[in-house]
Specification:
The protein is mostly helical and 178 residues long. It has 10 helices and no strands.
Amino acid sequence: MFAAGSLLPPQVLVIPLFRLFLALPLPAPLSDNGLLYDQLAGLVVINVAFQLGFCTFVLSNYLRTVPGELVEAAVIDGASLLRSLWAVVVPISRPAIAALAALEITWIYNDYLWGLVLMRTGDKRPITSALNGLRGEYFTDTNLLAAASILVALPTLVVFLVARRQLRRGLTLGAVRG
């Protein structure tokens, strides 16, 4: 069920979600215009909704490979179910979690569509959508746009460099070595 939501391209849902964001009221502390439209909370909601299915699918498939005997042994040794999850399952799952975190950070950081469609003001837009503001109607400074694009790409590069060892292990978990 979670994976089925990932099969529908987000571009198909632009108009219904745009109308929904214009119709949903948001309390005053969370919104300056009383709507979900043009709010950071709206981008958070849409990214969580679209990425939750993929994350659930990846982690559930990985956790099926973890032997149940490890959790049973921890419970027999006196650990609670939550303690065995934290002390046994999470350390074993670190490569899968790191790979998933690196992918999700990159996908959400580089999201262009939702920031452009669901945000009106430029100072609230995510950085990749805000790059669109560097283009003019009649003239575009391509040198400025290229330099800004390189600066925008640096955090993604840092994420991959920091998590590269865990990412490599996480992406090759199911690979057969011959």
